[in-house]
Amino acid sequence: MALISSLRAKGPMPRHQLAAASRLNAAELTRALKSARQMGVVAYAGEPESPAEADTPLVLTGRPLPPPRRVAPAPRESKPHFEPLLDVWGIARPTALRRGHPS
Fold this sequence. Notes:
By secondary structure, the protein is mainly alpha-helical. It has a domain at about 1-60: Arc Repressor Mutant, subunit A. It has four helices and two strands; from the N terminus they run H-H-H-E-E-H. Strands 1-2 form a two-stranded antiparallel ribbon. The longest helix has 13 residues, at about 25-40. The radius of gyration is 25 Å and the shape is elongated.
């Protein structure tokens, strides 16, 4: 969103100016640009006719950002597992409750 907001507010700009305008570090900017380009939201000016260079301005394509995907959380077992923790702490339990953990 910072990347798109910066381009919307200040217009086309090269990568180094975009990093300063969006206040993203190099790794964040790289990930944001990769995602935005894959979604078709951002492109290099003149792409695909000419290869992108360091000073090639990035532009918004006018394509809307797709809605965020909803990811279902991984199912979790309902009962907690304290046996390994009790073993590490050295808390004794009846041998019938131990599940093959060597003492």
